[in-house]
Each structure stands twice: as structure tokens, then as C-alpha cells.
Amino acid sequence: xxxxxxxxxxxxxxxxxxxxxxxxxxxxxxxxxxxxxxxxxxxxxxxxxxxxxxxxxxxxxxxxxxxxxxxxxxxxxxxxxxxxxxxxxxxxxxxxxxxxxxxxxxxxxxxxxxxxxxxxxxxxxxxxxxxxxxxxxxxxxxxxxxxxxxxxxxxxxxxxx
Length: 161
What we know:
- 37% of the residues lie in helices and 22% in strands.
- The protein is of the alpha+beta class and 161 residues long.
- The protein is built from five helices and six strands, in the order βαααβββββαα.
């Protein structure tokens, strides 16, 4: 991550054409339901944004510049029934997965092991939600679609809390 340019560090995005081409590639490859919400104009309209549809779909994106590889687009989409997915898209067509919260966890009949598994699950989810928010892919806590806020709450709290 050292090569990632951050806002204010003097890095200049390559070109609008590269970004538009990348946005075109992504939108062309998504399912029709997502494509109704996520358009090239939407992605190009803001450096960082969020789109929601009535069915509970949330799309978050953030453009950035890597000092060695150029422009990229971080993209997240989540739905209460389909889960959460996030990736970094590069102009050369390569895709890097971005870690997302776990939806399920292992369980154990051993109380000590069960406590450890709960702690690992909660800590992983807290860490990944914070990372996604830092990247600009998630809105502030409480500003997401209601079902996603509920899922986040449930996935970041121990069961006995």
C-alpha cells in the first residue's frame, strides 16, 4: 500500500479517458440489476460516492492513483441477501480482491474454543468494516441501507452483547 497516492500528496490522476474506459469495462460486466443503478456517468461523476436502490442494493466506489500502476477504481456492492463484495479494478484488466466482513463463522461445542471463534469473527469484521469505510466504500455508520446497517451491527457484536 506504500505506493498508493492519497489525496493531497501531489499525485495527479492519469487521464479521464483511462478512468472512463475502466468504468465502461466494469459497467459492461455487471448484472443487469446492478447496471440499472451503476452507470458510467455515476462512476465518473464523483471521486467517491454511494448509490442505493429501493431493493436494498448499495454500491460504493472510490477512484485513486497508485504511483506505480496508475488510476484504479475501488468498488463495493452489497445486498442484504447476496452479501458484500469489494475489489480494486485496474486499467490493464486485473482485479485485486478487497477483504470484506465474514457473513458466517465457525462454531464449537467447546466453550473456550467457541469464545475464541466469536472473538476472531467479531475482530475480523470490525477491522474489515473500518478498512472499507477508510477507503470510502462504505458510508458512515447509520447512513447505509437499513438492512446493511443491521447486518453490520450483528456481525460486529459478540452474541451475548
